[in-house]
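Sharing a chain and its predicted structure for anyone who wants a worked example. Both blocks are below, sequence first, C-alpha coordinates second.
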Amino acid sequence: MRQTFVETATAALDRDPRTAVVLAVISAADFRPASARHPGRVVDLGIREQAMIGVAGGLALTGMRPIVHSYAPFLVERPFEQIKLDLGHQGVGAVLVSVGGSYDGSEMGRTHQAPGDVALLDTLPGWTVHVPGHRDEVRDLLEAAVRGDDAVYLRLSGTENRAAMPVSPRLTVLRTGSTRSAGVVVAVGPMLDRVLDATAGLDVTVAYASTVRPFDRDGLSRLVGAAGSADVLVVEPYLRGTSAHEVAEALADRRHRQLGLGVGRDEELRAYGTPADHARAHGLDTEGLAKAARDFFLL
Protein backbone atom coordinates (compact mmCIF):
# COMPACT_ATOMS: atom_id res chain seq x y z
CA MET A 1 0.00 0.00 0.00
CA ARG A 2 2.81 2.41 0.85
CA GLN A 3 4.39 2.08 -2.60
CA THR A 4 1.01 2.62 -4.24
CA PHE A 5 0.59 5.77 -2.15
CA VAL A 6 3.98 7.10 -3.29
CA GLU A 7 3.19 6.38 -6.95
CA THR A 8 -0.29 7.91 -6.76
CA ALA A 9 0.86 11.02 -4.89
CA THR A 10 3.74 11.49 -7.35
CA ALA A 11 1.32 11.27 -10.27
CA ALA A 12 -0.86 13.89 -8.60
CA LEU A 13 2.16 16.20 -8.25
CA ASP A 14 2.89 15.77 -11.96
CA ARG A 15 -0.71 16.34 -12.99
CA ASP A 16 -2.09 18.98 -10.61
CA PRO A 17 -0.13 22.16 -9.70
CA ARG A 18 -2.42 22.56 -6.71
CA THR A 19 -0.98 19.45 -5.05
CA ALA A 20 1.83 19.51 -2.47
CA VAL A 21 3.37 16.73 -0.34
CA VAL A 22 4.37 17.61 3.22
CA LEU A 23 6.67 15.22 5.10
CA ALA A 24 8.59 14.84 8.33
CA VAL A 25 11.46 12.64 7.13
CA ILE A 26 9.34 9.49 6.73
CA SER A 27 9.29 8.39 3.03
CA ALA A 28 11.27 11.50 2.01
CA ALA A 29 13.65 9.41 -0.11
CA ASP A 30 10.70 7.99 -2.06
CA PHE A 31 9.67 11.51 -3.09
CA ARG A 32 13.15 12.75 -4.02
CA PRO A 33 12.62 12.41 -7.82
CA ALA A 34 9.29 14.27 -7.56
CA SER A 35 10.95 16.94 -5.42
CA ALA A 36 13.53 17.51 -8.17
CA ARG A 37 10.77 18.00 -10.74
CA HIS A 38 8.56 20.12 -8.49
CA PRO A 39 10.74 22.19 -6.16
CA GLY A 40 8.67 23.84 -3.47
CA ARG A 41 5.83 21.32 -3.71
CA VAL A 42 7.57 18.51 -1.79
CA VAL A 43 8.37 19.86 1.67
CA ASP A 44 10.36 17.84 4.22
CA LEU A 45 10.32 19.60 7.59
CA GLY A 46 12.56 17.16 9.43
CA ILE A 47 11.29 15.63 12.65
CA ARG A 48 8.78 18.42 13.24
CA GLU A 49 5.36 16.82 12.99
CA GLN A 50 3.46 19.71 14.58
CA ALA A 51 5.02 22.07 12.02
CA MET A 52 4.12 19.56 9.30
CA ILE A 53 0.41 20.04 10.05
CA GLY A 54 0.81 23.81 10.47
CA VAL A 55 2.49 24.09 7.06
CA ALA A 56 -0.28 21.97 5.54
CA GLY A 57 -2.86 24.35 7.00
CA GLY A 58 -1.03 27.33 5.55
CA LEU A 59 -0.80 25.72 2.12
CA ALA A 60 -4.51 24.91 2.22
CA LEU A 61 -5.31 28.55 3.09
CA THR A 62 -3.54 29.60 -0.12
CA GLY A 63 -5.64 27.20 -2.21
CA MET A 64 -3.16 24.32 -2.36
CA ARG A 65 -4.12 20.70 -1.71
CA PRO A 66 -1.59 19.30 0.81
CA ILE A 67 -0.97 15.56 1.19
CA VAL A 68 0.61 14.97 4.61
CA HIS A 69 2.32 11.69 5.40
CA SER A 70 4.02 9.88 8.27
CA TYR A 71 3.57 7.00 10.72
CA ALA A 72 0.16 7.13 12.38
CA PRO A 73 1.46 8.10 15.87
CA PHE A 74 3.48 10.95 14.36
CA LEU A 75 0.72 12.06 11.99
CA VAL A 76 -2.33 11.97 14.27
CA GLU A 77 -1.36 11.61 17.93
CA ARG A 78 1.68 13.90 18.21
CA PRO A 79 0.28 16.90 16.25
CA PHE A 80 -3.36 16.43 17.26
CA GLU A 81 -3.65 19.99 18.58
CA GLN A 82 -2.46 21.33 15.22
CA ILE A 83 -4.97 19.10 13.41
CA LYS A 84 -7.70 20.54 15.61
CA LEU A 85 -6.63 24.18 15.26
CA ASP A 86 -4.53 24.64 12.09
CA LEU A 87 -6.89 22.55 9.96
CA GLY A 88 -10.23 22.22 11.73
CA HIS A 89 -10.53 25.63 13.37
CA GLN A 90 -9.19 27.35 10.24
CA GLY A 91 -11.86 25.60 8.19
CA VAL A 92 -9.43 24.06 5.71
CA GLY A 93 -8.75 20.50 4.68
CA ALA A 94 -5.82 18.24 3.87
CA VAL A 95 -5.22 14.61 3.00
CA LEU A 96 -3.46 12.82 5.84
CA VAL A 97 -1.94 9.48 4.81
CA SER A 98 -0.54 7.22 7.52
CA VAL A 99 1.44 4.02 7.68
CA GLY A 100 2.06 1.88 10.75
CA GLY A 101 -1.41 2.06 12.24
CA SER A 102 -2.26 -0.20 15.19
CA TYR A 103 0.54 -2.79 15.47
CA ASP A 104 1.98 -2.74 11.93
CA GLY A 105 5.15 -1.32 13.52
CA SER A 106 5.19 -3.81 16.39
CA GLU A 107 8.84 -4.69 15.83
CA MET A 108 9.76 -1.01 16.43
CA GLY A 109 7.98 -0.85 19.76
CA ARG A 110 5.19 1.22 21.27
CA THR A 111 6.49 4.51 19.81
CA HIS A 112 5.40 3.35 16.34
CA GLN A 113 1.98 2.01 17.31
CA ALA A 114 -1.26 4.00 17.21
CA PRO A 115 -4.41 1.89 17.60
CA GLY A 116 -6.33 4.96 18.76
CA ASP A 117 -5.81 7.14 15.67
CA VAL A 118 -9.30 6.74 14.18
CA ALA A 119 -10.96 7.14 17.59
CA LEU A 120 -8.98 10.33 18.15
CA LEU A 121 -9.94 11.87 14.79
CA ASP A 122 -13.50 10.81 15.52
CA THR A 123 -13.62 13.52 18.21
CA LEU A 124 -13.39 16.17 15.47
CA PRO A 125 -16.23 17.02 13.08
CA GLY A 126 -16.08 16.77 9.32
CA TRP A 127 -13.41 14.16 8.74
CA THR A 128 -13.69 11.47 6.10
CA VAL A 129 -11.79 8.35 7.15
CA HIS A 130 -10.78 5.64 4.68
CA VAL A 131 -9.32 2.28 5.73
CA PRO A 132 -8.48 0.46 2.48
CA GLY A 133 -7.98 -3.29 2.46
CA HIS A 134 -5.96 -3.51 -0.77
CA ARG A 135 -3.39 -1.42 -2.62
CA ASP A 136 -5.75 -0.81 -5.56
CA GLU A 137 -8.25 0.76 -3.18
CA VAL A 138 -5.49 3.10 -1.98
CA ARG A 139 -5.03 4.46 -5.49
CA ASP A 140 -8.74 5.09 -6.08
CA LEU A 141 -9.33 6.64 -2.66
CA LEU A 142 -6.29 8.93 -2.83
CA GLU A 143 -7.08 10.15 -6.34
CA ALA A 144 -10.61 11.07 -5.25
CA ALA A 145 -9.36 12.75 -2.06
CA VAL A 146 -6.83 14.91 -3.91
CA ARG A 147 -9.59 16.28 -6.15
CA GLY A 148 -11.49 17.65 -3.15
CA ASP A 149 -10.87 20.29 -0.49
CA ASP A 150 -12.13 18.53 2.62
CA ALA A 151 -10.38 16.82 5.53
CA VAL A 152 -9.50 13.21 4.70
CA TYR A 153 -7.58 10.56 6.62
CA LEU A 154 -6.29 7.59 4.60
CA ARG A 155 -5.05 4.82 6.89
CA LEU A 156 -2.71 2.40 5.11
CA SER A 157 -1.98 -1.07 6.44
CA GLY A 158 0.94 -3.46 6.26
CA THR A 159 -1.44 -6.31 5.42
CA GLU A 160 -4.01 -6.51 2.66
CA ASN A 161 -6.85 -8.69 1.44
CA ARG A 162 -6.55 -11.17 -1.44
CA ALA A 163 -8.53 -8.94 -3.82
CA ALA A 164 -9.55 -5.31 -4.03
CA MET A 165 -13.16 -4.32 -3.40
CA PRO A 166 -15.00 -1.54 -5.27
CA VAL A 167 -14.38 1.77 -3.55
CA SER A 168 -17.66 3.05 -2.13
CA PRO A 169 -18.89 5.17 0.76
CA ARG A 170 -21.50 2.45 1.31
CA LEU A 171 -21.22 -0.97 2.87
CA THR A 172 -20.47 -3.64 0.26
CA VAL A 173 -22.22 -6.96 0.87
CA LEU A 174 -19.96 -9.97 0.34
CA ARG A 175 -22.20 -12.67 1.76
CA THR A 176 -25.95 -12.55 2.37
CA GLY A 177 -27.49 -14.50 5.22
CA SER A 178 -30.97 -16.00 5.15
CA THR A 179 -34.10 -14.34 6.56
CA ARG A 180 -33.46 -16.43 9.68
CA SER A 181 -29.78 -15.48 9.90
CA ALA A 182 -28.02 -14.74 13.16
CA GLY A 183 -27.14 -11.16 12.23
CA VAL A 184 -24.67 -8.93 10.39
CA VAL A 185 -20.87 -8.78 10.45
CA VAL A 186 -19.07 -5.60 9.27
CA ALA A 187 -15.41 -6.08 8.32
CA VAL A 188 -13.26 -2.95 8.02
CA GLY A 189 -10.34 -2.70 5.57
CA PRO A 190 -7.65 -5.39 5.94
CA MET A 191 -9.84 -7.46 8.30
CA LEU A 192 -12.06 -8.70 5.44
CA ASP A 193 -10.29 -11.92 4.47
CA ARG A 194 -9.99 -13.06 8.06
CA VAL A 195 -13.66 -12.27 8.71
CA LEU A 196 -14.78 -14.20 5.62
CA ASP A 197 -12.68 -17.20 6.67
CA ALA A 198 -13.81 -16.98 10.30
CA THR A 199 -17.53 -16.81 9.44
CA ALA A 200 -17.53 -19.45 6.68
CA GLY A 201 -20.43 -21.79 7.33
CA LEU A 202 -22.27 -19.34 9.63
CA ASP A 203 -25.67 -18.02 8.56
CA VAL A 204 -24.78 -14.32 8.78
CA THR A 205 -24.55 -11.38 6.37
CA VAL A 206 -20.98 -10.11 5.86
CA ALA A 207 -20.44 -6.54 4.66
CA TYR A 208 -17.22 -4.64 3.92
CA ALA A 209 -16.32 -1.02 4.70
CA SER A 210 -13.29 0.88 3.41
CA THR A 211 -14.86 4.21 4.37
CA VAL A 212 -15.77 4.35 8.05
CA ARG A 213 -16.49 8.07 8.42
CA PRO A 214 -19.09 9.01 7.47
CA PHE A 215 -20.37 5.58 8.53
CA ASP A 216 -23.05 4.02 6.31
CA ARG A 217 -25.79 4.03 8.97
CA ASP A 218 -28.62 3.62 6.44
CA GLY A 219 -26.89 0.67 4.81
CA LEU A 220 -26.38 -1.09 8.13
CA SER A 221 -30.00 -0.44 9.11
CA ARG A 222 -31.21 -2.04 5.86
CA LEU A 223 -28.97 -5.08 6.27
CA VAL A 224 -30.09 -5.62 9.85
CA GLY A 225 -33.72 -5.23 8.80
CA ALA A 226 -33.32 -8.06 6.30
CA ALA A 227 -31.50 -10.36 8.73
CA GLY A 228 -33.12 -12.80 11.09
CA SER A 229 -31.70 -11.09 14.16
CA ALA A 230 -30.66 -7.52 15.00
CA ASP A 231 -27.21 -8.57 16.20
CA VAL A 232 -24.18 -6.73 14.76
CA LEU A 233 -20.51 -7.65 15.00
CA VAL A 234 -18.02 -4.98 13.83
CA VAL A 235 -14.40 -6.04 13.26
CA GLU A 236 -11.99 -3.08 13.03
CA PRO A 237 -8.18 -3.10 12.74
CA TYR A 238 -7.82 -0.37 15.37
CA LEU A 239 -9.16 0.31 18.85
CA ARG A 240 -12.01 -2.04 19.79
CA GLY A 241 -15.43 -0.38 19.76
CA THR A 242 -14.37 2.71 17.78
CA SER A 243 -17.58 2.51 15.70
CA ALA A 244 -19.90 1.38 18.52
CA HIS A 245 -21.61 4.76 18.66
CA GLU A 246 -22.24 4.63 14.90
CA VAL A 247 -23.94 1.23 15.21
CA ALA A 248 -26.03 2.54 18.10
CA GLU A 249 -27.14 5.55 16.01
CA ALA A 250 -27.91 3.36 12.99
CA LEU A 251 -30.09 1.01 15.05
CA ALA A 252 -31.58 3.50 17.49
CA ASP A 253 -35.09 2.59 16.28
CA ARG A 254 -34.90 -1.07 17.33
CA ARG A 255 -33.67 -3.39 20.03
CA HIS A 256 -30.33 -4.83 19.08
CA ARG A 257 -27.10 -6.36 20.35
CA GLN A 258 -23.66 -5.34 19.18
CA LEU A 259 -20.05 -6.37 19.74
CA GLY A 260 -16.92 -4.61 18.56
CA LEU A 261 -13.66 -6.45 17.97
CA GLY A 262 -10.33 -4.71 17.53
CA VAL A 263 -7.20 -3.81 19.45
CA GLY A 264 -7.85 -4.37 23.15
CA ARG A 265 -8.56 -1.42 25.46
CA ASP A 266 -8.09 -3.09 28.85
CA GLU A 267 -4.29 -3.04 28.98
CA GLU A 268 -1.30 -2.11 26.83
CA LEU A 269 0.30 -5.06 25.08
CA ARG A 270 3.94 -4.60 26.10
CA ALA A 271 5.61 -6.81 23.53
CA TYR A 272 7.57 -6.54 20.30
CA GLY A 273 7.03 -9.50 17.97
CA THR A 274 5.41 -9.49 14.55
CA PRO A 275 2.06 -8.01 13.51
CA ALA A 276 0.76 -11.60 13.33
CA ASP A 277 1.76 -12.08 16.98
CA HIS A 278 -0.15 -8.95 17.96
CA ALA A 279 -3.20 -9.95 15.92
CA ARG A 280 -3.26 -13.27 17.76
CA ALA A 281 -2.88 -11.58 21.15
CA HIS A 282 -5.84 -9.28 20.41
CA GLY A 283 -7.99 -12.13 19.09
CA LEU A 284 -7.87 -10.70 15.57
CA ASP A 285 -6.46 -13.79 13.86
CA THR A 286 -8.89 -16.07 12.05
CA GLU A 287 -9.19 -18.49 14.97
CA GLY A 288 -9.86 -15.72 17.47
CA LEU A 289 -12.47 -14.09 15.23
CA ALA A 290 -14.20 -17.41 14.60
CA LYS A 291 -14.55 -18.10 18.32
CA ALA A 292 -15.76 -14.57 19.08
CA ALA A 293 -18.35 -14.77 16.26
CA ARG A 294 -19.70 -18.13 17.42
CA ASP A 295 -19.91 -16.94 21.03
CA PHE A 296 -21.62 -13.65 20.12
CA PHE A 297 -24.15 -15.11 17.71
CA LEU A 298 -24.75 -18.09 20.03
CA LEU A 299 -23.96 -20.57 17.25
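Comments welcome. The two ends are 36 Å apart (CA to CA).
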